[in-house]
Design a protein that fits this description.
The protein has two domains: 267 residues, Glycogen Phosphorylase B (Rossmann fold, 3-Layer(aba) Sandwich), CATH 3.40.50.2000; 190 residues, Glycogen Phosphorylase B (Rossmann fold), CATH 3.40.50. 39% of the residues lie in helices and 20% in strands. The protein contains 19 helices and 18 strands. Strands 3-4-5-2-1-6-7-11-12 form a nine-stranded mixed β-sheet, sandwiched between helices. Strands 15-14-13-16-17-18 form a six-stranded parallel β-sheet, sandwiched between helices. Strand 9 and strand 10 form a beta hairpin. Helix 11 crosses helix 17. The longest helix is centred in the last third of the chain and has 17 residues. The chain starts with a strand and ends with a helix.
């Protein structure tokens, strides 16, 4: 018997995206379909979402959803069902999904995403005739209040619905002052240590984690790390208390979207058997970034430029990277100070370091297809997707030993290389000396052509599609529903 699951999130490819969350939410419905689970995705009605939706059936109208009129519209996400919360007062704005044109968070984000949660709880409770859901799957703090509403203020007359709360990044929690509580439409009993209260304010992610039947993270290692203060971000006590109800399932990637044998963005397509064809992509990437051809490896970075991603430490090792024959092509945006320092490094090393500020999906494909190694020096990384794309494209990942990076990359130590099992380079501790040593080790491996190609081919054989992860989610859903 098919499971009907309501997946609630703030973004999903190909409709709207700011990061890896969108990739996961967009991929899950197709990944679960072969395992007897039908996922209906609920998204906010951002302009791009409504534009893609076109004409749609109205499922329900709200005269006031936490203060704004709204509609629930039916559509499709690929071949899978989609419901959109059309609330112009909340989502029809110029700027980003979460921030205004000035780059600052929208002041009413708490109300915008509480409204999303309220609508999700109503849908799960049977608001729309013929739309029955066996489980609600909420993603990150923007969807977390759905589970709080299900617990404390379900639709009158509805039956309890089990739930899964997935934490994609514990650093983003949706914390707001106490004053917003009275506007949420929750009963007084929800203001409790095991409810929505968190350090005398309202914690959206915390509320969802308290209310969920099961909590998941996007890698097994991250599920263990968030039990510690360094990674738990103040919620480690809750994680410890939930015990075995906190699980980790590694994200997958879409092999149809990320396939170097068919990628239209590449100058030359290739497979594990035709690796020499990659050289055309390397030459094209060097030209695109204004880099001088060289005998050493071309490192690439595709990242948000933040402290979490370790870019401050990367800045410290750039002179070393260039000094031992490496070159760097970097794509990303984030902290203005880091952006300026990267541009200064590129000016200091013309022809050796190229920097593009911003994000370009097609360019990210070309970088994976033309770079020799991708640097991911994150201080914490719940799962990470860029290293998975690197594996698929024979762009050898050089990663910090944390979270999903540790779970998905096999270090090229002597034993792993001898066994032909290595897929990348790991290092412990995001500081100058460990990262510099990892870069030096990567350069040395690169100059051992046979060893390097074995690492590349082993990475390309790794299966990080959604096939196995989709089954794990389906099995988890059934376990949760069975109680």
């Amino acid at each position: 018997m098919a499971l009907n699951v309501l997946s609630v999130a703030s973004e999903a490819v190909p409709l709207v995206k700011t990061g890896g969350l969108a990739d996961v939410v967009g991929a899950l419905p197709a990944a679960l379909a072969p395992h007897g689970a039908v996922l209906t995705t609920l998204l906010p009605g951002f302009p791009a979402v409504l534009e893609a939706l076109g004409r749609a059936k109205v499922l329900h109208r709200y005269d006031s959803l936490l203060g704004q009129p709204a509609r629930l519209l039916a559509g499709k996400l690929g071949d899978q069902p989609l419901i959109v919360l059309d609330a112009p007062g909340y989502f029809a704005r110029e700027g980003g999904l979460y921030t205004g044109p000035d780059g600052k968070d929208w002041g009413d984000n708490w109300r915008r995403f509480a409204a999303l949660g309220r609508a999700a709880a109503d849908l799960a409770g049977g608001l729309v005739k013929g739309r029955k859901f066996d489980l609600v799957h909420a993603h990150d703090w923007q969807a977390a209040m759905a589970l709080a509403y299900l617990r404390f203020a379900p639709l009158p007359g509805s039956k309890p619905v089990p739930s899964v709360m997935t934490v994609h990044n514990m650093a983003f929690q949706g914390y707001y002052p106490r004053e917003v509580f009275k506007e949420l439409g929750l009963p007084r009993r929800a203001w409790a240590i095991d409810g929505v209260e968190f350090h005398a304010g309202v914690g959206f992610l915390k509320a969802g984690m308290e209310a969920a039947s099961v909590i998941t993270t996007v890698s097994p290692s991250y599920a263990l790390e968030i039990r510690e203060a360094e990674f738990g971000m103040g919620l480690e006590g809750l994680v410890i208390n939930r015990g075995s109800l906190v699980r980790g399932i590694v994200n997958g990637i879409d092999p149809a979207e990320w396939d170097p044998a068919r990628d239209p963005h590449l100058a030359a397509t290739y497979t594990a058997r035709t690796l020499p064809r990659r050289s055309a992509n390397k030459r094209a990437l060097e030209a695109e970034f204004g880099l001088e051809p060289g005998e050493g490896p071309l490192f690439v970075v595709i990242s948000r430029l933040t402290w979490q991603k370790g870019i401050d430490v990367l800045l410290e090792v750039l002179d070393h990277l260039v000094g031992i024959g490496g070159r760097l092509a970097l794509l990303g945006s984030g902290d203005a100070g880091i952006e300026a320092q990267l541009q200064a490094a590129a000016a200091r090393h013309p022809g050796r370091i190229g920097v593009r500020i911003g994000y370009d999906e097609a360019l990210s494909h070309r970088m994976q297809g033309g770079g020799d190694a991708i640097l991911v020096p994150s201080r914490f990384e719940p799962c990470g997707l860029t290293q998975l794309y690197g594996l698929a494209y024979a762009c050898v990942p050089v990663v910090a030993r944390t979270g999903g990076l540790a779970d998905t990359i096999i270090d090229a130590n002597l034993a792993a290389c001898a066994a032909g099992a290595a897929t990348g380079v790991q290092f412990s501790g995001v500081s100058y000396h460990p990262l510099a040593a990892a870069i030096s080790r990567t350069v040395a491996l690169f100059h051992q052509a046979e060893v390097w190609q074995t690492i590349q081919r082993r990475g390309m054989k790794a299966d990080f599609s959604w096939t196995s992860s989709g089954k794990l989610y389906a099995d988890l859903y059934r376990e949760v529903i069975a109680g």
